[in-house]
C-alpha cells in the first residue's frame, strides 16, 4: 500500500503519469473515483460515494510538464466501496498486472525451447519442437504431441481425428491448430496441437506432416483414419498428401452452418440432420430425396 501513497506536494512527470498513479492508488485502496474535472492543466476528483469527504486536486506546474497535488482530503468515511470489481481497472492496467504476474509475451516465446525440452524429458517419446525463421531467429511455429496422447489414441480411441483452428487473441495473434480424437466414452481426447503464424494451406500441410511423423514413430503400419474438418481446401489437400489411405468427412456443425447461411432455409438444415442420423441407406436416400425436392443446389 505504501507504494500507492499520495500526498500534497507530490509531483509527477506529466498528466499521464499522475492519472496512472491516482488510478492505481484508487484500485489499491479499494475505492471508486468520480472525476469532476480532468484536462491538461488540472484534475479534480472525489470519492464516488456522495457523502464521503475524500477529495483531490492536482494542477500543472507553470512552465513545466510536471503535475503536482495541490490539495488532498485523505479520509474515507464510506468504508471503501470497490470490493467486487473496479471501474478504474482498465484493460491496460489489467494487462500490466498480468505481465507482472506471468511475464511478458516476449519472455514466454523465449522460454518455449526449454519448455519443449522439459516435456520431452518428463514424457519420453513426446514430439515437441519450436521452429524459427532462419534470418532473424523469430518464432514461426510450435508443434506438440505428447507420447501418452499418441499411444492412447492408437490403442484406445476411435480411429477418428477432428481438425480445427482457432484464432489467438494474444499480443502476437497467430492460430492454434488442433487434432482431437474421441475416447471409448465419446469424450474428447487431445492428440496434437500447434501454434502457427496464420491459418493457411501451408500451415495445414506442415501440421499434418508433423502429425504423420509423430504417429509413424510408434506404429509399424499406419492405420486408416477418418478425419473431420470444416472441409477447407487446405485441409483436404494436406490430407490427400499426408494421409492418402484415410477418409475425410465434413463436420456437421460446419456443414449445417454453411447450408443455413447460403440457402436461409431451416427446413433444409433439419432434413440434413435427419439424413446424418439415418440408421439405414434407405432412410438416408429418402431424406436426401426430400432435400433434392427443395433444392438441387443444396443436395450437391
TrEMBL record:
Domain annotation MULE transposase: ranges: 168-256
Pfam families associated with the record: DBD_Tnp_Mut, MULE
Database matches in InterPro entries: MULE_transposase_dom, Transposase_MuDR
Domain of life: Eukaryota
Transposase MuDR plant domain span: 5-69
Protein name according to UniProt: Mutator-like transposase
Amino acid at each position: 500500500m505504501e507504494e500507492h501513497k499520495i500526498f500534497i506536494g507530490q509531483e509527477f512527470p506529466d498528466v499521464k503519469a499522475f492519472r496512472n498513479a491516482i488510478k492505481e492508488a484508487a484500485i489499491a485502496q479499494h475505492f471508486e473515483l468520480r472525476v469532476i474535472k480532468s484536462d491538461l492543466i488540472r484534475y479534480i476528483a472525489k470519492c464516488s460515494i456522495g457523502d464521503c469527504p475524500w477529495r483531490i486536486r492536482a494542477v500543472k506546474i507553470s512552465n513545466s510538464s510536471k503535475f503536482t497535488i495541490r490539495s488532498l482530503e485523505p479520509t474515507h468515511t464510506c468504508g471503501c466501496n470497490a470490493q467486487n470489481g473496479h471501474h478504474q481497472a482498465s484493460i491496460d492496467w489489467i494487462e500490466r498486472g498480468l505481465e507482472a504476474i506471468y511475464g511478458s509475451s516476449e519472455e514466454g516465446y523465449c522460454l518455449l525451447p526449454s519448455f519443449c525440452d522439459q516435456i520431452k524429458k518428463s514424457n519420453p517419446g513426446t514430439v515437441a519442437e519450436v521452429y524459427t525463421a532462419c534470418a532473424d531467429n523469430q518464432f514461426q511455429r510450435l508443434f506438440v504431441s505428447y507420447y501418452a496422447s499418441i499411444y492412447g489414441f492408437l490403442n484406445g480411441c476411435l480411429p477418428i481425428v477432428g481438425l480445427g483452428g482457432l484464432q489467438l487473441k494474444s499480443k502476437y495473434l497467430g492460430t492454434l491448430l488442433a487434432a482431437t480424437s474421441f475416447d471409448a466414452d465419446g469424450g474428447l481426447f487431445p492428440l496434437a496441437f500447434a501454434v502457427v503464424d496464420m491459418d493457411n494451406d501451408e500451415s495445414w500441410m506442415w501440421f499434418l506432416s508433423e502429425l504423420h511423423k509423430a504417429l509413424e514413430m510408434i506404429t509399424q503400419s499406419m492405420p486408416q483414419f477418418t478425419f473431420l474438418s470444416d472441409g477447407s481446401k487446405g485441409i483436404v489437400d494436406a490430407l490427400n498428401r499426408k494421409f492418402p489411405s484415410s477418409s475425410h468427412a465434413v463436420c456437421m456443425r460446419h456443414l449445417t452452418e454453411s447450408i443455413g447461411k447460403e440457402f436461409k432455409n431451416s427446413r433444409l438444415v433439419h432434413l440434413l440432420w435427419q439424413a446424418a442420423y439415418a440408421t439405414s441407406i434407405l432412410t438416408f436416400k429418402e431424406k436426401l430425396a426430400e432435400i433434392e425436392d427443395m433444392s438441387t443446389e443444396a443436395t450437391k
